[in-house]
Backbone:
């Protein structure tokens, strides 16, 4: 997995190397299949696992039942008997080893769980306080309550002493809320999913001969202990954010402040009925507000440091523009043995690379993952010449001049620097979405989407901007989301938590320099967003894949037999040849 050279340590794993190996095997088997699709595909029979359980199977938190794993193998290799038998044997070996390791793992500590329940209750109180604080700030955006009546700064005081604005406080509050929600979700899982006795069948009725064992963990040593350590930092940070509200009325709306678990009545409020007569904050108060915000942000970073990857490496400068980065349309052959580049005219394609599982492209370059090892390679600009730049990752994404990755165990987001050097820039993530509008990650704890602020290496450098969604897409200017039930398309306004409905039901989203495209649920047609909410234009039937370049769109036919280019406007498409397993485009 990509990581800073010479600084990596073995990734933590909930159930040991055996569970990790099984989870990696399952992830490769189900590559390209969403959790919802897995849930629907295997709805019949004894195993009716939800999306969240499939996520646990893939992450290694829970062991998939052997019979279900063998069904996945059969579906993956329906016609290749030799491959099916070999993979089935490997599945049995990995499952046996993981189940044995799970049965021998240590039990959770009861005392730690008791303390964890107390800590979890306090986290809920802190989250409630933050939600009230955020509501106050959202309501106050656009007002000028902290600005002197004459519109200028007090005599003798420059911009450095201006009170922090609601937008800056709101960003800090959302960052703190995201951290608390992440700790809350982790602790709840540890407390509400007690370790089953060895051999207990969790996910299926009938015989225990094929148990769906949850991977045993010791939350008293990891999750709950980390939460207990974090509480002092989180408590102080919430208190300071509350202190930094720009008005006494706002602080009154948030309520009490919390310091080391004790509820203290505020002593700096004016008497009831005198709020309107309260004096405007003086220079000392302004300095204190700015200091409080600064300390709160520092505490966010310090607290996040405890849970971050211990080897972030040095913060790199932005990569210089890659003038040699290939541009155009690229495809992986149907047998995954070749990477091909379209000539730009007619139906002529050139083999430029070896076998590939996945292919992605952008201003940062053209990249492939090796189907055998999962290693990541970058195209050197000469057919047949590729350089290895990283080891396996859970996912890779190109945005602007940068390449990003999720570590193979899902615990961190990384940015490629150069060569084989990577820098950790964030904590756990489920999925990355990148484009001209920025880098966004789906939080495994909340299901919501967070935006990377562009610098820094801790969770405090990410801002929660929205709740869960079924899919996301990023173009040059905006982030888009598909509602969890896929019933509507939304566009992020740029302010955390504020979204606008722009479209109806869709099965998926695709975006790039050429715009935003969706596949209509009712008709199966590709729709192009016209830039006005609810205004969409059909441009043709959907296929197996869609690649959005800087200026046009390419479609892979449903049977993978050919690629075509949208002529636009209208519904005309020009065939440009070559069967393909997947396509990607940069122009």
Residues:
């Amino acid at each position: 997995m990509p990581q800073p050279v010479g600084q990596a340590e073995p990734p933590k794993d909930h159930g040991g190397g055996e569970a990790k190996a099984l989870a990696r095997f399952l992830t490769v088997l189900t590559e390209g299949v969403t959790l919802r699709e897995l849930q629907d595909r295997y709805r019949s029979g004894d195993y009716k696992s939800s999306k969240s359980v499939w996520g646990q199977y893939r992450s290694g938190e829970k062991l998939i039942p052997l019979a279900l794993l063998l069904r996945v193998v059969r579906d993956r290799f329906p016609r290749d008997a030799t491959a099916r038998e070999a993979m089935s044997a490997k599945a049995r070996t990995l499952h046996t080893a993981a189940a044995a390791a799970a049965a021998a793992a240590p039990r959770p500590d009861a005392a730690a769980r008791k303390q964890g329940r107390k800590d979890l209750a306090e986290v809920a109180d802190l989250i409630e306080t933050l939600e009230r604080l955020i509501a106050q700030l959202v309501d106050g955006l656009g007002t000028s309550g902290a600005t002197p009546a004459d519109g200028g700064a007090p005599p003798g005081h420059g911009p450095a002493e201006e009170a922090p604005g609601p937008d800056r406080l709101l960003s800090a509050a959302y960052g703190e809320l995201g951290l608390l929600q992440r700790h809350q979700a982790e602790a709840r899982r540890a407390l509400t999913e007690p370790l089953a006795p060895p051999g207990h069948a969790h996910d299926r009725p009938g015989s225990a001969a094929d148990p769906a064992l949850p991977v045993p963990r010791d939350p008293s040593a990891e999750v709950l202990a980390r939460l207990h350590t974090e509480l002092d930092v989180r408590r102080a940070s919430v208190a300071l954010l509350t202190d930094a509200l720009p008005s006494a009325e706002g602080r009154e709306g948030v309520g009490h402040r919390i310091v080391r678990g004790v509820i203290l009545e505020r002593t700096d409020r004016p008497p009831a009925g005198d709020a309107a007569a309260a004096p405007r904050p003086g220079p000392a108060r302004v300095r204190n507000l700015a200091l409080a915000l600064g300390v709160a942000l520092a505490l966010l970073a310090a607290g996040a440091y405890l849970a971050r990857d211990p080897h972030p490496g040095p913060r790199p400068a932005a990569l210089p523009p890659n003038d040699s980065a290939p541009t155009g349309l690229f495809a992986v052959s149907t047998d995954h043995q070749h990477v091909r580049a379209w000539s730009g005219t007619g139906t002529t394609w050139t083999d430029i690379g070896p076998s590939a599982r996945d292919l992605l492209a952008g201003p940062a370059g053209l990249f492939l993952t090796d189907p055998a090892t999962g290693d990541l390679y970058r195209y050197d600009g000469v057919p047949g010449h590729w350089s290895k730049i990283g080891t396996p990752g859970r996912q890779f994404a190109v945005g602007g001049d940068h390449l990003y990755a999720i570590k193979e165990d899902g615990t961190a987001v990384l940015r490629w620097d150069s060569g084989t050097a990577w820098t950790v820039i964030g904590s756990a993530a489920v999925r990355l979405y990148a484009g001209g509008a920025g880098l966004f990650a789906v939080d495994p704890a909340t299901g919501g989407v967070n935006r990377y602020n562009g610098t820094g290496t801790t969770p405090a450098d990410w801002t929660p901007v929205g709740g869960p969604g079924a899919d996301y897409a990023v173009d040059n200017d905006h982030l888009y989301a598909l509602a969890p039930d896929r019933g509507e398309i939304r566009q992020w306004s740029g302010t955390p938590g504020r979204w606008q409905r722009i479209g109806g039901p869709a099965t998926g989203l695709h975006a790039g320099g050429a715009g935003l495209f969706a596949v209509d649920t009712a008709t199966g047609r590709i729709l192009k967003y016209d830039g006005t909410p609810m205004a969409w234009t059909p441009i043709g039937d959907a296929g197996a894949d869609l690649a959005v370049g800087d200026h046009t769109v390419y479609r892979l036919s449903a049977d993978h037999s050919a690629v075509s280019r949208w002529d636009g406007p209208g519904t005309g498409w020009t065939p440009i040849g070559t069967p393909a397993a997947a396509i990607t485009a940069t122009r």
About this structure: Residues 110-140 form the longest helix (31 residues). The chain has a mean pLDDT of 74.
